[in-house]
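Researcher: Please translate sequence to structure tokens.
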Amino acid sequence: MAPVLRRASCDYQGDRTMKVFGYIYLARDKEHLVPVEVQQAALRDYARSIGLTLGEIYVEETAPLPQPFLERPEGSTLQRRCETGDTILVMKTEWILGSAAEGERLLRLLGENHVALHCVDLGINISLPEKRRLAVSEGSAELVKKLLAALSVCENSRHGQAIRTAKKHGKEQGKYLGGPVPFGWEVNGEGVLVENEAQQHIIGEIETMRRERWSYREISAKLRDTFGIRLSHEGVRKILAGNTKKQIKDV
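Model: Translation complete:
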């Protein structure tokens, strides 16, 4: 992706003092990432459709989606730059509202300062009342549906972040995070993987047989006949390859 200036200046409409700011959000995960060029074009086209000309553009590159707009590096800077009568354009609602509570806080602040916030995906100004335009409307129900969908994306991102944080904390404490328990190990009452002495003994027998040049299938049959354990030849191979120890390290 070609480098883009954090603030790309465009000409304003004549000598009007009102400014039109664009806000571009670059998601960290590829699934939700929309290229700068695509967002820039969408903002420019939308501005033109409502009789405005896009001015400075702020590109948010490091902030996670759950972080409130007013606490993001570029978001907070943009908010401080806005004055009465200015307009902010953003391509997707979820990139700027963050959550129901944070969205209400932001819209109240913008409304008090008479700053318009236009979301391209909704096609409306959501911070200030507007005069009705003579156009075919899809109705309030559809707009509410879109707004709820946007907030759902924000909340899911916040929930996902909480899960990742919890897993990281559990990993640091040596907690077992789920999945099949490797042969030779068990989960104790504190949720930590510990050695199963009986199975560790069997692993020792497996290693001994392999050193004596037993085949995987022969070892599998011996385990079934002697210990009553049904372990496939592939399972035997994985144990001998050291996969069990690697799984313990990765948990």
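Researcher: Any highlights?
Model: The chain has two domains: 20-154, 185-250.
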